[in-house]
Amino acid sequence: MRLPAACFLIALVVSTFAAETVKVTIEPLTFTAPEGIVSVPVTSPMRKAHWQWKKADQVVDVTFFAFGSGQGGDVNSNLQRWFGQFSGSEGKTESARVEVNGIPITFARAEGTFASGMPGGPMTPLPNQALCGAILETKSGLIFVKMTGPIELVREHEKAFTEMVRAAAK
User: Are 39 and 6 in contact (CB under 8 A)?
Assistant: First the structure.
C-alpha cells in the first residue's frame, strides 16, 4: 500500500513545480503564451500584460494594450507611430492585413535603431532592434500586441508570436 501513496506524493510534487501556462484575456480574446515566455510585472497602467523571452543577456518584450472601443487611434496611425520609432540605414518596415475567424489583424514588422521610451518622454536609441506587432480589430476595440528586442531574437520568436495572435482570434 505504500507504493500508491508514494506515487501520489510524486505526482503532487511534479504538478506543483510544473510550469504554469501564461495567459491574458483582453475581451473578447484570450492569448496563451508560447513556450518559454514568462510574465513580468506590468509597469504602466496602459499595459494589459507584459511577457518576456530571455536568452543569455538578451530580452524580447511582448506587451499588450487595449483602450476600448473608439480609443487608442486607428490602425494606420498606430502603424505609423510604431514605424516612426525605427530609423537608421538598416531600418525597414512592412505590414500585412489578414482575417482570422472574422477578426481583421494587421501584422507589422520593423527593424533598425529603435527609439525606446514612453511617448512624449526621453527616448533611448537602441541599434539592431526589431518589432513584430499585431493590431486586432475586435468589436470591443483595437487590441495591440508588440514584440520588441534584438533583431535575431525577435526573428527567432516571430513564428511563435504570429501563431499566438492567430490562435487567440480562433
Answer: no
